[in-house]
Amino acid sequence: MKEIELTLLDYLIGSLSVLPWGIVLWKSFPKKLSRNAQIGIVMALLLGWVSTVLILWLHPVIWPQTDFVTKKKVSMLTQTAHLAFIQAGMMEESFKILFILLLSFALSFDFKTKSFLPESALFAGFVAMGFSFIENTHYIVREVSERKLDIFLARTIHSSNIHLLINLCFGMFLLKSNSKEVGEKVRYLFFAFLLAVLQHGVVDFLLIPGASFGQWVASAMFVGIWVWVVRDWRVYVTAYLLDKKTLIPASEYSSQST
Fold first, then answer.
1. Nearest-angstrom CA–CA distance, 210 and 215
2. pTM, entire model
């Protein structure tokens, strides 16, 4: 893969593609961030960056015949599925989720109660932002001048959003796992990892061919995930922090809010 020399301006443009989502995530947290949480956010952004760098380095080693940034439409179904679910979904989510887990255990895990704190979801979102920041920067730099604005808007509106939702969804599973026993918790989080890979793979599978139908289906899918994540955020983050710091079951919370 041809090396790209990134400038400060390139990084600035890339950061603007994730800035709106980062602000939304920050402002959505229902209490003032502690110093520990602020450090965790910075670490999350850095770990997201590191995961992108590792993937950029490993990808041509594992798949030397395939460019990291795919420009051509893939005609064969199996090639599309491999690219979407394995080369993109499995590889990217493995690194991101590994770093989310490490950061959550280090800064937002109560070892006495063996439970994750709401900051874990926040860290998950910012790992996604750090990853998207570098990935978007590479995509924008590689694009021809006439299409840089188009790719910037596409990466800002769609790609950054998709990475954020997938990892926020995993962050919600971390908080939901607090009610599980240790053995069940491990299985539950492994399922959450597989779900993240599936979500990533499905959306890439729909988007890679470039057909309008696939784009509409992918968009509809992530509207649904947005609804799912927002509902869980209200229960497992907002309700936890504002209502006596106890987790309210989703069904009970829904009945109270109607």
1. 7
2. 0.85
